[in-house]
Amino acid sequence: MKTRIGILGVGGVGGYFGGLLAKAYSKSSSVEIIFIARGETQKTISKNGLKIVTDNDEIVVFPDVVSNDPQVIGKLDFLICATKTYDIEESLFSIKKCITKNTVILPLYNGVDAPERISVLFPENEVLQGCVYIVAMIVSAGVIKKIGTYEKLFFGSPTAPISILNKLQSIFANAGIESYLVENIEETVWEKFVFISALASATCYLDQNIGEILNDKKSRLFYVDLLNEITMLAAVKGLNLPQDIVMQSIQKLEKSPLDATSSMHRDLIAASKIELASLTEFVVNEGLNYEVETPTYQMVLDKLTLI
Question: Which residues are in coiled coils (predicted)?
Fold first, then answer.
């Protein structure tokens, strides 16, 4: 019987990693890849496949199934979730018939609250923790562009059976995905959150890309202030993050394409809904809960709430 893997959200993250899985297992007798998509994305991929464009080449992949109809999707063994954080509940509710008590769910969102939110919906399921580092985006329906060479996927769970985790890691590795099964996954997810939350907040507030923030003294200091506030929050919460997490985050930024920006900033420029609640407001609210001052985050929240 095939292992059936659903990709919920065929955007930059889901499209890229789901595309690698679809390519690797296109003729597999053991693994089936299902893209859960709707509208123009569904129509385009069904007809022309999913195109992934990188700095060096491009590929076109066809999943085994592409649909938003639960009857067509069928029961899933693994579900990789990569929608926007504001769509978590609605998107999962739309395919609840595909999720059995044995379905293992891997969230790959920008925020840190997704596993808890998903567990409220599906309390009997194994909900892993995970995060990715990648610069990838939707160019048009059915077309994903990845910029740069830095791409990593981390996942893990303190409760899931090691056999399940090893199986998923093997599936990723065989697809050429640089993935890491991490024991202390909560700290790893928070390391990513520190990086992406501060970056998303800074790029949106300043309306600048990565290069502009790094090369402007005031903008760089603003970004560092955000990093200092969120790392203080993590420390008070008892998370064991690296002591040089602020410097590490800056170094990660310096390795990123200078003309790139955060996905939240891209959405803001496009006048689309943004992930303000998960990436900025969450930090402000947690700061209030733990009595940690976050004045820079509050400035960002106040400004972006009005947009």
Answer: none
- Domain-ending residue, one of 183, 210, 225: 183
The edge-to-edge listing of strands for the beta sheet with 179-181 is: 129-133, 152-156, 179-181
> Judging by beta carbons within 10 Å of its beta carbon (0-12, 13-18, 19+), is residue 251 exposed, middle or buried?
exposed
The model carries a pTM of 0.93
Same domain, 8 and 40: yes
Q: Could you list the residue range(s) of the whole structural domain that residue 99 is in? A: 3-183
The domain that holds 109 is classified in CATH as 3.40.50.720
Task: Report the alpha-carbon distance of residue 165 to residue 146 in Å, rounded.
Answer: 27
Ordered per-residue pLDDT tens for the chain, 307 residues? 899 999 999 999 999 999 999 999 998 999 999 999 999 999 999 999 999 999 999 999 999 999 999 999 999 999 999 999 999 999 999 999 999 999 999 999 989 999 999 999 999 999 999 999 998 999 999 999 998 888 999 999 999 999 999 999 999 999 999 999 999 999 999 999 999 999 999 999 999 999 999 999 999 999 999 999 999 999 999 999 999 999 999 999 998 889 999 999 999 999 999 999 999 999 999 999 999 999 999 999 999 999 8
